[in-house]
């Protein structure tokens, strides 16, 4: 799942750049809202990647005393 998260993050960031420059799908101008959504999805994908890369001990449910 880690590679999928990185691929999605890269795709979302590329799409955000294309939306901000006005080259995505329709040459009708800049789509700021769509660009912001793509940036948020890219960051969410990186957060997902980070949670996937946590060690097994940190996902164990707490410390044992």
Descriptive report:
The two termini are 32 Å apart. The chain has helices at residues 2-21, 32-52. The protein is mainly α and 65 residues long.
Q: Which keywords apply here?
A:
elongated; 63% helix; 65 residues; 2 helices; mainly alpha
Gyration radius over CA: 17 Å
Specify the biggest β-sheet: none
Task: Classify the beta-strand content into a percent band.
Answer: under 5%
Outline: elongated
Ranges where pLDDT stays below 50 over 5 or more residues in a row are: none
* Helix-strand sequence: HH
The count of helical stretches stands at: 2
Q: Pairing-aware structural class of the strands and helices?
A: mainly alpha
The span between the termini is 32 Å
Arithmetic mean pLDDT? 82
Annotation, overall tally of beta strands: 0
Domains counted in the coordinates: how many? 1
Percent helix = 55-70%
What would a concise description of this structure say?
Helix content is 63%, strand content 0%. It is an all-alpha fold and 65 residues long.
What secondary-structure arrangement, pairings included, does this model have?
Elements: H1 2-21, H2 32-52
Helix pairs in contact: 1-2
